[in-house]
Specification:
Blueprint (H helix, E strand, L loop, with lengths): L7 H4 L10 H19 L6 H8 L3 H7 L3 H21 L8 H18 L1 H8 L6 H25 L9 H20 L7 H15 L5
Length: 210
């Protein structure tokens, strides 16, 4: 055979990379950005880093987001809503709180386990930008308000009103701190942080297990 004659293998065109739809491309950008933001923090991460990780150009990112800040805030809002929905799906008003708490707590930690980058972005403080810090303050206030509602539903009439918000903050900060600790100890099964938070909540609010 003439070595100079191209074979059928050499003449086949290269398989082109699948062209992503705008929705798929945005999802790829968000996934890459979340991972980098979680690993490096907001300040240290650049749009060039995100573009390289997502396999797109920097101008392509600007087609979906006006700035790094808008991308970060968009992700925070998305993950905030997802995490809240995960817990709310287990919120059944026809059952007593002591029956709802285990399922709600497990659903919350299940989201953290499945979406570690999202959890780190939500639960860690992102210093360096006033608008992002304001968003996180609002998130903490929202979480605290939800815990206050649970406490009011279950607390003893002897519990002073002035203690409800501080108790809610203890629960919120315990949940956040434990989740971040757990992300650094992936060998620990989910049942452990779930039971720890239930112990804390039952002790503070007065619910009973089982």
């Amino acid at each position: 055979m003439d070595r100079g004659t191209p074979t059928s293998e050499t003449t086949l065109p290269r398989r082109e990379r699948k062209r992503l739809s705008p929705t798929e491309r945005r999802a790829a950008i968000e996934e890459a950005a979340a991972k980098l933001f979680a690993e490096r923090g907001y300040v240290a991460c650049t749009l060039d880093d995100i573009a390289a990780a997502a396999g797109v150009t920097k101008p392509m990112i600007y087609r979906h987001f006006e700035s790094k800040k808008e991308l970060y805030l968009s992700l925070l809002a998305k993950y905030r809503d997802e995490l809240a929905q995960a817990a709310l799906e287990e919120y059944r008003t026809d059952e007593p709180l002591e029956a709802r708490l285990p399922a709600m707590t497990n659903a919350w930690f299940a989201y953290v386990e499945k979406h570690p980058s999202a959890a780190k972005m939500l639960l860690r403080d992102a210093a360096g930008d006033a608008e992002i810090e304001a968003f996180q303050q609002q998130l903490r206030a929202m979480q605290r308000a939800a815990d206050m509602a649970l406490i009011r539903e279950q607390h003893s009439p002897s519990l002073p009103e002035l203690q409800i918000e501080p108790l809610a903050e203890v629960i919120r900060s315990s949940l956040t701190g434990l989740a971040l600790w757990w992300l650094e100890h992936p060998e620990i099964p989910r049942s452990v942080p779930v039971e720890v938070i239930l112990r804390v909540t039952r002790g503070l609010v007065g619910t009973r297990g089982g």
